[in-house]
Amino acid sequence: MSHTPHELNEEFPDMIEKMAELKQSDAHFAKLADEYHELNRAVHRAETNVEPTDQFNEEEMRKKRAVLKDEIYRMLTAA
Known about the structure:
elongated
């Protein structure tokens, strides 16, 4: 299996423990992390032509992934 870039553990390597804690204690965070993971895999499959899609759809998936990543980061850094 090829390496999938942009995994959350790579995006936020200094927050791996906090992500694990939030996945257990916060259902909304867990849902966002799952959505991010699924969308990131879909983007990777599109980029590598495993599941090709049109450029517009691929761009929309990337934008949604960025929004999810921003929300996840906000939750990770909230006091």
